[in-house]
Specification:
Elements (H helix, E strand, L loop, with lengths): L1 E10 L2 E11 L12 E3 L5 E3 L3 H7 L4 E8 L2 E8 L4 H12 L6 E4 L21 E6 L1 H46 L6 H19 L6 H40 L7 H13 L10 H8 L5 H17 L11
Parallel strand pairs: 5-8
Antiparallel strand pairs: 1-2, 3-4, 5-6, 7-8
Helix pairs in contact: 3-4, 3-5, 4-5
């Protein structure tokens, strides 16, 4: 960039102003110097100041720690800005203990894994003790088992979901056939319903928690929906059969006219009754009364004759006490 100043000069028409260059500036910043400059919000181009360069000038101190595990001392070199969790990872290689199973004691106090060494008062050549934490180990084992169960549940649910997808395609095919007026086999409907119920039983046997539990619930609702759709097809498929069963009753002959019914009644009334029930006590008394006189015997004989003509009366030999 070039700047100039105005200089007055005398001429025939009066003073004339001329521009004389004073200083030259580069119009383009070199590529290697672009990273050293930055533009401020006001539009001023200034030299960039990096805080990383100043921080790199100050080295981070390294601590040499003596950590006791049982009867063995381990020397660990670690950054002063590291955490106790980082120290546990280094000790896992020496002691064979899982980082989550370790308990670090410094100045008679257990230290948290997220605490920083320098903030906790650790210095170069500080001493500390690492021991195994049974409670943390048991907790980690339980979490591992739970995670394994969750993985198994997720795999089982995904496998069941694939089977349900196959059955769902068959259900959709049956719905298409039925919607076009085709006949659907009842055995095929029962087979699909049974297969879906088996998948539902498999879902009930899956132990799930958290996200896997939500997936299982979604699959259960999905299977139930397909079963309901098959039930609807089965019900609609059975309606024509009900009409077919009602047609013979509708085609039955009409009832006879009233004259024929009267003739049947008259013919049935002329026929003698086969059995007549009577409650006349005289017939029973005649069996027990002794033959004292001819009049009584004649009346008894007449009554018995009338009773016998009306209906046969069994006679028994009764003994009088």
């Amino acid at each position: 960039m070039r700047t100039a100043t105005a200089v007055a000069a005398e001429g025939p028409a009066g003073p004339v102003k001329a521009f004389v260059p004073m200083k030259d500036f580069p119009a383009v910043v070199p590529v290697n110097e672009q990273s050293k400059w930055e533009v401020r919000p006001c539009g001023m181009l200034v030299q960039k100041r990096s805080s990383e360069e100043g921080a790199a000038a100050v080295p981070v101190p390294t601590f040499r720690l003596r950590v006791k595990h049982g009867s063995i001392y381990h020397e660990i070199y670690i950054s002063s800005q590291a955490t106790f969790g980082d120290l546990k990872k280094l000790l896992a290689e020496r002691t064979g203990l899982h980082p989550q199973d370790q308990k670090i004691v410094f100045k008679d106090k257990e230290r948290d894994s997220a605490s920083y060494l320098d903030m906790s008062g650790v210095k170069d050549r500080s001493k500390m003790v690492v021991v195994e934490d049974p409670a943390a180990q048991a907790k980690r084992v339980l979490e591992m088992r739970r995670a394994a169960k969750m993985d198994k549940a997720v795999k089982s649910i995904s496998q069941i979901s694939l089977e349900v997808d196959k059955l769902a395609s068959q259900v959709s095919a049956l719905e298409v056939v039925f919607s076009k007026g085709g006949k659907v086999s009842e055995n095929e409907l029962l087979r699909l319903i049974e297969l879906l119920m088996n998948e539902l039983l498999k879902l009930d046997g899956v132990f799930a928690d958290g996200e896997a539990k939500l997936q299982r619930r979604m699959q259960v609702k999905r299977v139930q929906k397909y079963v309901e759709r098959l039930d609807v097809i089965k019900l609609k498929n059975a309606i024509p059969k009900m009409y077919d069963e009602e047609t013979p009753e509708a085609a039955a002959p009409p009832p006879p006219p009233p004259q024929q019914r009267q003739r049947k009644k008259s013919s049935s009334s002329t026929q003698p009754p086969s059995v007549i029930v009577t409650t006349k006590w005289e017939t029973f008394d005649s069996l027990f009364s002794p033959r004292a006189s001819a009049s009584t015997s004649s009346t008894t004989t007449a009554s018995s004759t009338a009773a016998s003509s009306a209906a046969p009366t069994p006679r028994f030999d009764w003994e009088l006490f």
